[in-house]
TrEMBL record, chains A, B:
Residues 168-356 form the S-Me-THD-like C-terminal domain. Residues 6-162 form the S-Me-THD N-terminal domain. It comes from Shewanella submarina. InterPro entries: S-Me-THD-like_C, S-Me-THD_C_sf, S-Me-THD_N, S-Me-THD_N_sf. It comes from the Bacteria. It holds the Pfam family S-Me-THD_C. This is DUF917 domain-containing protein. The lineage of its organism: Bacteria, Pseudomonadati, Pseudomonadota, Gammaproteobacteria, Alteromonadales.
Amino acid sequence: MINTKQDLQDYARGAALLGAGGGGDPYIGRLLAEQAIDAYGAPTVIQAEALDDDACIISVAMIGAPTVLMEKACSGDDLDHLLEAMARHLGKKVDALMPIEIGGVNSCLPLVAAARTGLPLVDCDGMGRAFPCLEMVTFNVYGCDVFPTVMVDEHGNEIVIRATDAPKTEKFARSVIGEMGLSAMISCYPLSGKQLKRWAVTGTMTLALELGRAIRLGRQSDNPVQSLLDALNSTHYYSPARLLQEGKVVDVERVTRDGFSFGTCRVESQTGYSAIDLSFQNEFLSATNDGGYVATVPDIIAVVDKDTAEPITAETLRYGQRVSVIATNIPPLMRTPEALAVFGPRCFGLNTGYQPHERTTDQLE
Amino acid sequence: MINTKQDLQDYARGAALLGAGGGGDPYIGRLLAEQAIDAYGAPTVIQAEALDDDACIISVAMIGAPTVLMEKACSGDDLDHLLEAMARHLGKKVDALMPIEIGGVNSCLPLVAAARTGLPLVDCDGMGRAFPCLEMVTFNVYGCDVFPTVMVDEHGNEIVIRATDAPKTEKFARSVIGEMGLSAMISCYPLSGKQLKRWAVTGTMTLALELGRAIRLGRQSDNPVQSLLDALNSTHYYSPARLLQEGKVVDVERVTRDGFSFGTCRVESQTGYSAIDLSFQNEFLSATNDGGYVATVPDIIAVVDKDTAEPITAETLRYGQRVSVIATNIPPLMRTPEALAVFGPRCFGLNTGYQPHERTTDQLE
């Protein structure tokens, strides 16, 4: 499925969009995947239905502040260590790998691990986007065990967490990250084939590839952002999608704290008559217009270049950028009350319930 | 060996002395051991020589700030969980338990675990005293693996650390303790019988019992502190022992930081003509007289009540207490250059090499 450098570029770009501004710089992930595919060949991507019910599938990801991921990538040896450690703790053979999130660098790392090991990669993830905390996955929402959670760093340090629940696992992981240099390799939610088929957000690797391809091809049109919106609206998961604001980045505040990148960003229309304020914790959490919510998590809020529709991550936002802010729907598994209890706006400290972006009636420019 | 309540009291009191002011309040440890022995019977204590070379021996301890241990003891279930988890990660049956340090609460916790499980307890430890960091044991000095290191808390959370070395293990453990409520159960340095016989400080449980008994019986004499010094001087490990200062606690500063209790204490002679300044990081690290070192780690510096020779831990030091400050030698395994590189004064940030207390020539009152 992802065989050429062009495929990889498209895939990484699509994943950057689905990263909702977070998930780590996909450029780094793409370079790592390119190198691994050059050295070991392209991994086989399989569909969830192809899995035996008792197959053992594990996820591969980086955890940490995206601001740090930009400077500290993985070595490959650490991924091998991660997979070996997880198999050792599970006491069984691993049959396939998967991304835990389709957004950002974590969409590409499983490609690296799969290329190195020859294990197949399942076309799915646990979010249909990116989220900052490891309890924010469908597997947790629907009752799969997060443990054992294995973390390794580039020095060969290995931590195994077996906590009472996923939020506590997240807390332990964050406390350990500091000693691992603020980013580490992590595997959690080891799944059976049966669990994966039931609770994964399937087909998202294909969707990332298609959306990235649409961005590239859309650049031949008059309106690349509209082409992207058309592509999003042609998917089952991300439709409806719409433009929230077009304009200039006039303010960015950003702080790296507790292993996360927190901040806000204002995008003002060229005329100056309207503005959208974005908040983020690694990923964009909300878009407000004069204090009123026009979009919130778990809907995807993304910022793209106005002229090229290139996704812009929260850590690369700069004053003066000309951007379009868009919002999309998310997969049905992620809009249930159980799901919103785990990654709805209040889980991020926002003072609002979930506001499906297509139902907000605010006037937009 | 430790069968009656009287034995337990003596043992805990001796361990408090060998705790060098740290290791957690032994009173708490004694109550826990009393309760366990009432419920399950006294554990069997065996000598190191009785172990097969390929026996599997694991340590049982609490880790955290002594100021917190005073308020948050163990439940028993957490010890069971700790032993089960260590056996699971080792993939073998555990044959015996041991204290990792003979000082303070960690001298008593293995009694609780041994009583609950029926496993024998080996008459030894890894320090011959107490130390604040988990790399500060003879096993680390002489090349035994610290991993797997298992930590559990009272909620059932479990962390396994497999770090590149013992100091890094200590750092991970401290980073995790915060999420475990600043104290946790820990097991590390799983040993073979062969390793234990070679590198453990043997016979220290017996010594703690005898020293505690000497303190109790010494109260019938005119000078309990002198009786204690005589008892210390009759041992191979802790001789020579001497009185550094008798007087009043006139100043105590204490702060709980990074999972440790740090501080200083001044003991002034009744006449006011001389004073000893003590520094501590959980345990007493140094005694100075007008800025000159009269004793340093790893020698044991202990503060006892002037009239009863009752050991006083650093966290229970109070203004106005009438005390005697004593210093003792330590076992030969702990005075080698390799040992001093791991727990000599410079390892605690003191600006001095090891000063064997019997060689410091300062005038003492």
